[in-house]
Amino acid sequence: MKLPRLLVTAMAAMLSAPALAGTVSSPDGRIVVTLDVTGEGVPYYSVERDGKPVITDSNLGFNFTDDDPMRRNFTVQTQISRESEHRWEQPWGERQFVVDHHKELAVTYAETDETPRTITVRMRVFDEGIGFRYEFPEQPHFQTANIAEELTEFNIASEGTAWWIPAGDWNRYEYIYSKTPIREVSVAHTPMTIRLEDGTHLSFHEAALVDYSGMWLRRMDGQRFRASLAPSSRGAKVVRDAPFDTPWRTIRIGDDAADLVENDLELNLNEPNKLGDVSYFEPNKYIGIWWGMIRGDWSWAQGENHGATTERAKQYIDFAAENGFRGVLIEGWNVGWDGNWFGNGRDYSFTQAYPDFDLEEVTSYAAEKGVHLVGHHETGGNIQVYEAQLEDAMAMNQRLGIDVIKTGYVADAGGIISCNADIKDECGEEIFEWHDGQRMVQHHQRVIEVAAKHKIAINPHEPIKDTGLRRTYPNWVAREGARGQEYNAWAKFGSGPDHAPTLVYTRMLSGPMDYTPGVLGLVGDNDMPMASTKAKQLGLYLAIYSPIQMAADFVESLEAHPKELEFIRAVPADWAESKLIAGEVGDYAIFARKDRNSADWYVGGVNDATERTLELAFDFLEPDTDYRATIWKDAEGATYLTDARHKIAYDSKTVKRGDTMSLWLAPGGGAAIRLEPIAK
Q1: Of the listed 149, 266, 387, 486, which one is catalytic?
Q2: Which of 140, 109, 92, 113 is nearest to 44 (CA)?
Q3: Which listed site, 425, 455, 590, 644, has its alpha carbon 20 to 30 Å from 629?
Q4: What is the pTM of this model?
Q5: What is the pLDDT of residues 244-277, one digit of tens each?
Q6: pLDDT, tens only, 435-448
Q7: Does 486 qualify as catalytic in the annotation?
């Protein structure tokens, strides 16, 4: 298929005297961004949409630990404008092809003193939102940036509602989302989602977070937010030598919730694939020796209840082979889990197995069955120990045919054990860092690059947040980075019925999540009930996207639900198209997704605590084609609140483009539909 032409127009205006910066609009003209300086020479930007302010004048700049702030006394030195349009293909993803069409304005500011420093702000404006970054050029008066804080502001123009989780607290990203007026936000992780009073939807995030500290959003006053960078043990939150670029600061802008979800802004602001052929990674589904440890039935540590035994691994491999699961995750296989490993990790070996787990025998058995082990590297937050073993561990996994690894960083937010600011294989003194500081960003980058050398894909838990780098490094296939399914095992209604439909419009705007759906038994530790119906566990496969999807339950429970297992076996993990066909932030989300490898469509999703009836339109189907719809849905009377959570109904019918379907969703419910073309 011939791709649309690349349209690029460039204009540079060298200004001999101070001048105002310019404006740049989205290709459709609805969004207009202004870059300017105040009378004191403070750089700022503002955003309008359809002639109404969205972001009012918001300052730009930096504070440093060893130099004067970059804050005022700037004038415009140059302006460069351009427009670009092209389409690119994802090796895997929510959709196969992504269109990148934007206009750009790059403004270089120079100080007016005798030793002027310069900085460029590059603004890209899409129909779907904006992204901008700072670019520090090589220059005589500024070689190294020791950044104390970034002074980027986001001054939201009107009142509205925010969905957010706290940043800078002990539990990383693993919180229930708060829904509050914008003026009640404190310090928030990104993505942070906002619905303005006029219905405009916004999402604040960042793209291409490389060798920099993660950005939080701190409300300063009213509706004015400022970037707040995750701390560092060095004092300076970021240390970089010029020339360098910061991550992009992004704002998705849309008329409704679907405009936020069907939006590739951050992906388009990342660089293209640097790894070349990544066909060694196959989007797939997996099972694992995991839920038993989460519930407390088995232990990660060795002993009579040890979960990861050779015998149990073979049992799970047999089930995977019989039911079409590519992978089997095995946690707790390696030395180091005994004692208190949380936030410790000093005793982990990533190449030595416990005596009751024969790694060579298990991987050989899996290969005979056509199954791949999913490796597991829990670090306990000790990246010093992990980095010293990283090359050997990845080489061993490549030799054994283990081509996907789940990593873990279970420690409090400021409890990562490092060695110093530089990445080295061996180092002495322990230093504690933040989960999303510059040192951890460097660490995750190193893991991805070493894994890629050995043709291994990575799925980190307790990770650095996703910022679209899966485009540049497609072996970075999924992450956790939110409150996952395990919380449903640890307390009655552990995450509540609203959590999953809120994730769709918040955390999921950053990228794929390994949420671990498919717990059909609907009970956690001590048989505590989950805030989910059985149909919702199926709907999660369509609502919470990942190219590696787990069926997280015990194999005995999966076997006991053959009709539900039929759907889990069939649903793809790779899509040609994805559309949100019904949904509101925090309430419900119903997707239509087209299989990349067939003509089948799948429809489904999740609901909050309010029962509702939706009219689903099948306008996305191919014309002049009948489809057989196989339906899994909440049965009459189902609710997450009682044992009726187990009530599920099955149906089938023929549908075509233009048809509608009435779908009832239970409190805490969901649905899943498979649509197969009927041959004529």
Answers
A1: 486
A2: 109
A3: 644
A4: 0.95
A5: 999 999 999 999 999 999 999 999 999 999 999 9
A6: 999 999 999 999 99
A7: yes
